[in-house]
Amino acid sequence: MEYHNPSASALWSGQAPSLDHSSQILIREYPHRAIAIASSTHALILRHSSTTSDAIANGSLPSLASASARAASLDSNPSKCMVEFSPRAKHLLEDYRPLTPRPIYGTLGLISIGRDVFLCVITHASRVATIRPGETVEKIEGVQFFCLNSSDYDDVVAMDPYDLDTDASSVYGQNLGRRDVGLEHPCLELQKLLGNGTFYYSTDFDVTNRMQDRPADANTFEIDNFDESFLWNSYMIQPLVEFRSRLQRHERDALDASRILTSAIRGFCRSWAIPQTSAPLRSAKTGLPSYLTVISRLSCRRAGTRFNSRGIDDDGNVANFVETETIYWSPSGVVFSYAQVRGSVPVFWEQAAGLLPNQQKITITRSSDGTQPAFDKHFADLEQAYGAVHVVNLLSGTKPGELELTSLYRHGIHHCPLSRPGDGQSRDHSLLRSTEFDFHAETKGPQGYESANQIRRYIEDSADGFAYYLAQESNDAADRNGRSTSPRSRRYIVVLQQEGVFRTNCLDCLDRTNLIQTIVSQMAVEAFLGHRSEVAASDFWSRHANLWADNGDSLSKIYAGTGALKSSFTRTGKMSFAGAIADVRKSATRLYYNNFADKARQITIDTLLGRLVGQTPVILFDPISDYVAGELQRRSHEFSSTDKIHIYVGTFNLNGRTDGIDEDLSPWLCPGEMGAIQPEIVAIGFQEIVELNPQQILDSDPKRKQLWERAIQRTLDRQYSRAGQDKYVLLRGGQLVGAALCIFVKASILHKIKNVEGAVKKTGLSGMAGNKGAVAIRFDYANTPICFVTAHLAAGFTNYDERNRDYATIDRGLRFQRNRGIADHESVIWFGDFNYRVGLGLEMAKDLVRRQDLGRLYENDQLNLQMVAGLAFPYYSEARINFMPTYKFDVGTDEYDSSEKARIPAWTDRILRKGPNLRQLAYNSAPLRFSDHRPVYALFECVVNIVDEKLKDKISREVYERREAEVGGDTANLAADDSDDEDLIGYDAIEPGLPAASSDRHKWWLENGKMPRSSISPPKIEMTAQRTVLNPKRPVNPYTPTDEPDWVNIPRSESRLSSFSSISTSPYEHVNHSMLLSSSASSSTPRKLPPPYDPSALPSKFGRVQIAEELADGNNGGPPPPPPPRRQTGMGGTGSSTTPTTPYPRKPVNKPAPTPFPTTSPDSVVSVTRPSLAKTKSPPPVAKKPAHLVAPISSSSSVNGSLGLEATEGRGNGDAPSIGLSRRSSTGYSDTSPILEGSSRHQLPVRNGNINGRDPTGGQFPRRAITSAGNERTLLPGPVRLPGMADSARRPQPPAQKPVDVSQLKTTAPPPPAPRRSQPVDLLADDDAGREMGGWEALKPT
């Protein structure tokens, strides 16, 4: 049974903290809403800067401080608040009223939820521990969140159980606190978390540090020295701590004395008062009791619930890491302390929650070599904080999952530098030792859990060497007569220090761990008493056991949701039947919490710690701080740099085969075109790594993945084994049934990689099965987040809609920790078997393959068409495909499918990229023939950002000190009613090139010694045919140094250049007058009407237009043609003008015949960027096979030239032309009749029976279109007007006149374009190669 001492328990139960350390919270509504925390001497006043927030929200005031936040999340802006700390005076708080009738016990800080800012204060607390006289610990039992910027939540504060019988609701008026309000308080879950009795604070000493790490006799503490590893409100309190650091010394001391700023730990804390009769150390001087205390501090570095937080991260932080300290104080002037730690097994592993107890599968997510850097860092941190480390591993030696963890643990310890002893010393003298103690095996005998005491003989040598902390009162703590002086005048001196620590772990670090730690604590206390020749009575040990049992229950509730198992034995030393039944009940309760409640708890924890993606801290405004932020932004080049790394990506559908594991994979993993490049990162994705049968689609078998990982490791080691080349280690792997992803990195860059996480998303059987889906791994390389996604999408020739849905499901539903998604990364690479096919018949596709007509195949590629339509992979790009289709082959041959199913050759295996810092260097397939797919690979160059944090902090301090000396460090008087927000916020330029906004204190026009210019007047000119206008080439800012004159002369409206009357002279509209003048003067011939319309003479290429650049004047006076239908895709700017326009006749152009596709090697890669769906309109109907692609296309049609501008970049001078691909083929219109009818009034000139000199027999076929009824009809060949393209007749054509003054102006603009050639040029054709450009390319602005 639990031990209860009536007198001792009555001492702590419900005892409120001292009123000396309490404050009052007040509010003022007018003229500005402000909240004040007032102590007896000072007041901390907080007010939200609404002007700043509104300006930032609507975009009119970009904030310097928000620049870094926008880089992380474009949708979030930090909330700014103004703060003032002043001595309490009568007039200061005369307009304020109390918010609560009860006192508060400090603030935990500020947090921003959406656009609202909340102040969190402690409303209820109880004293639970007295470490020694003058040092107490309180437990937080209730908090409230008050909104700084809105009164909407004033009556939505969650009902306080302590105020049910009081008139607290009257504070808000007519019982607003009791009425039913539909609006839920945004901080309700946070309020429940902070008030659940697991958080503790102290206003007397630094509760985040153990006794050995703080001054022995200090009764004051510096908040700057708190250990942030255990400070759970560090995210919320940090803005106030930074504000405190900017105060003067006396103000800082006053703020600390007010106890307004509060530090909170999470874990357990409790004291037992030991009466003199039971105390092991007796003192005849006083009758005071001794105090035995246990404090557990749970780390917030890798905080989380049981199955959401396992193992280690790249910074060396482990899950459920707890520092537990046993403290004993005696009135005789002796203080004893002993600390030990627990934590998850420090390897990268995960465990999924399940409904069957003890059946949760353990997954190792990183190889031992990839784990070693984080493993070493973890123990290096422990050694630095505690000294030597002795690991006590309690995992089972028979359970497969725990045995695998033990093996990796043993490997890490063996290779850790701390485990290597010095020269000539044994391993017993190393800084890292380990003991494997199979708890279940050792306690299986008749003695039961009592056998756990056998651990003593394994660790007693280390226990003796580690010692303990001991401090004693000095002799000057008593007067000459031997009387004890005041407790506050006592001075302690340190006698002994603890020089090592035991690190105990089991699987959860709860039940087994707590029992063993109880034994270790007892051993330390026994050693302490033994050295003083004292022995403790059984009553003392009973209290000790109960404290440790309560500690185990509290830590277990935090991590697993229930109290600890085996606590009955911990309390009494016996395992009773009732205790066994209680353990069964706790196990069942854990299953419920772990499966249904822990995810919500995890999100609340991440919100409290500020770790959600897009979450920004509250900024307490200080003019100097904003100035420093601006300076750091301007000087970012001094502490930040970029580096280029190479990333190799490969994907392979294995078709469930393993016979290729022993083959040479170097043609795929180490292709010759990579040359001497050794990529820093190698990402490999597999599909169908196991056979996808009904028995395996619901579970994953890691054995196959591990076999292929070893095969890849062997290939990389063999290829890069030369001197000077780095070894690769497996960073992390992941698997979803048949899809697998493994990331290998150079061993030399492991220290640059952090926050490695993995996630999977099932899409098979509506998300229930894993036969289809995606595996993703993300990490931060220096300061650049990178994400890799390998996917296997739905199969089937016509199932492209389902594949689109699979992509959307993965993109939206795949989430990493802290709610981070795929889109929250700077660089994203998708690769895998996407299963998009080629929309052609079998014979036609195979014929194109034989002729290597890749361009024609690509025009019918489903992924190409879906991306053009914006229905899949928006904003992603794919390099030009220079390799043959990768599916489907007869195994072992280069022949495409010859089976009865006769699958059409297709590029099912693809690699896509997104990110401005990615540049693709290679894209090809490899000749591995043991599967029905061919592997595909790509090589990328990635620019990563690197920030020197130490140098940044140094520059920040220097700038702050210099600015403070310049302005004097004045703070705003927030109490004044006429306080102007605009004088308190940070001012940024609203547009690049403009100065920052002005205020009463800051006038930008007076800087650099320049005075303002009141007005300017145009100069007088002598020429009456011209008038003076503002020079459009002058900078927008009139005070920017420039050589441009203020005014220029242009012809008047009645002159021959009267066409300029419609051109704006605004300096914000840059109009190249000289270019228009020269073009208008080139021809003054009268306008001519176009020839009659002849439909038979029009070209028959659907989706392409031919427009001459050199047009003649003319107007038929008829009504304008109707605009073509808008395309419902991501292409913008397709609206057409309603101005009547008429096309001009153009001169014939003799165009060479297009060159057929040659067979080339992929010596270059060209980027092809897809347009995206920009608006949320309904997508256009997409047929199973695009209508305009049904009819065969003549081989003489140029496809090589349809790549777009980027396609020519990869072709050097003199090289043979590469196989060209269409950038994005038009998917056709649902009904093209309005277009043809709209152009029936115009006709292009015919020369010798053809248009523009083209041969009408050159393979032109009539087009077929799908009507609204779904029927095909043949369309006559003719030009098609692109959406949004108006005729060039709209441009004014002034009569010829040579410009005089305008042409003489100096300009910094780019030189004017070269003179037009004498022959007309097709805008959509290649000037050099005679290539043609698709309709989608024509829409791209030049």
TrEMBL record:
It is found in: Cytoplasm. Residues 190-561 form the SAC domain. CDD domains: INPP5c_ScInp51p-like. Residues 1160-1170, 1223-1233 have a biased composition (Polar residues). SMART domains: IPPc. One of its GO terms (molecular function) is phosphatidylinositol-3,5-bisphosphate 5-phosphatase activity. Its main location: cytoplasm. Keywords: Cytoplasm, Hydrolase, Protein transport, Transport. One of its GO terms (cellular component) is cytoplasm. Residues 1029-1050, 1079-1099, 1111-1342 are annotated as: Disordered. Residues 1142-1159 have a biased composition (Pro residues). Pfam families: Exo_endo_phos2, Syja_N. GO terms for biological process: phosphatidylinositol dephosphorylation; protein transport. InterPro entries: Endo/exonu/phosph_ase_sf, IP5, IPPc, SAC_dom. Its EC number is 3.1.3.36. It comes from the Eukaryota. Transmembrane segments: none annotated. The keyword Phosphoprotein does not apply. In the central section; belongs to the inositol 1,4,5-trisphosphate 5-phosphatase family. This is phosphoinositide 5-phosphatase.
